[in-house]
Amino acid sequence: MARDLVVIGSSNGGARTLPLLFAGLPPDFPAAVVAVQHRGPEVEIGGLASFLRSRSALPVREAEDDLPIEPGVVHLAPADYHLLVEGNRFALSTEAPLRHARPSIDVLFESAAEAYGARLVGVVLTGTGADGAAGLRRIGRRGGYTIVQDPATCERAGMPEAAIAARPPKRIVPVEEMPELLVGLCAARGRAA
Amino acid sequence: MVGQDGMGTAGELEEIEIGLLLEGINSHYGYDFRGYAPASLRRRLWHRAHAEGLRSISALQDRVLHDSAAMQRLLVDLSVNVTTMFRDPTFYAALREKVVPLLRTYPFLRIWNAGCSTGEETYSLAILLREEGLASRMRLYATDINDNVLERAQAGAFPLERMRQFTQNYIHAKGKADFSSYYTVDGSWARFDPALTEQVVFAQHNLVSDGSFNEFALVLCRNVMIYFSKPLKDRAHGLFYDSLHTFGVLGLGQKETIKFSPHENRYAPLGSGTKLYRKTG
Known about the structure:
The structure holds 2 protein chains of 2 kinds. Chain A has helices at 14-23, 47-53, 105-116, 133-141, 158-166, 178-187; strands at residues 5-10, 32-37, 60-62, 74-76, 82-86, 89-93, 120-124, 145-149, 171-173. In chain A, helix 3 (105-116) packs parallel to helix 4 (133-141) and helix 4 runs parallel beside helix 5. The relative contact order of chain A is 0.21. Chain A has 6 helices and 9 strands. In chain B, the strands form 2 sheets. Chain B has a 7-stranded mixed β-sheet. In chain B, strands 3-5-4 form a 3-stranded antiparallel β-sheet. The interface between A and B is medium-sized, with 32 and 36 residues.
């Protein structure tokens, strides 16, 4: 099974956790990465993207409406929009925040699960609240591979605990172990990981 | 399992149900959502289904075809953009710096705010144009598919709790006055000065099926085409192109692109990083 899309959701603590994950992904990482980090509207457009760019071997870009999902690129959900996967491209929405969040992790995860099915890997990282739990459950039910950051190692354990409670994920690991796991999952072709 | 978490062929069945629902709405009410992008459309349909206490898209079809009030509620779900005044303040700052000088060269101005939803963008634009001394010689057409949201826009009342954010945006957008001078407080509402909309025409217009209705110096259509699939996006872009004067300006949302539109080469960006495009030919 060639898994070619990794979706990641984080909230409080994400700004310190995402760099640990991105720094460990090699420049030749074969899958596309899409990350939702909870945040408010940005005055300085692209602030978080440039912060992460300097801490990642892969190019980091803010997703825009209608742009293709590119392998080997970290796409960041823009502030104050929901980000959806529409076929192999992105779509945006300004419908109401979900669980006080826009971008919402569930919105990204559920649309990605529909579009990618078993080719998808979903990752829930640190954060308070329960965003991402329903989305990760959907990813699991559609045959995708589900990973949750070990709550004991999280800055905030709420989201990981909610995700684990909603449906047991395939793996519960500290963030330091994720890059290697993701490389293995996305490079493995023709066999189940 | 019933509903959106169904397994296997449930996804295909749901696709059929959505297709039938959209056909039904188009035939019965004349609203054509068949060209909308499926992922967010699907979300909004399920949102309405759950709000109506229904467990399938077929049940939603039954409800909206037989109950026009339910159809109105769905229409609101499909046409409301939850936005703020002066959303993306840098856009409005650029509008002031780069577009207003062009607008000054017209003795009389027509401007189109397409997909105005509940009016946050329309009032932002009206305030900016008044501050730039253009309000007395312009007409601003604010259109939306949905009469209900147009009525709300026309009423000009917004929840008071939102004023903090609107004010912040206004300041970052290089507003020239005290933002609170534009509204009066009425209980938990901020009622905007009716004089702001004296030159505004609120009218129903459907980007899916209606044509061009005038020639404009400026068209703003921000975060509306994000719900359209490719053919519908192309249609709307064609409509805007046909509706602009030569050298007229098109403004899009901060995360929208003109890149894949067939009209891409007939516009020149006004500065880098802003979503303002000037028609060149």
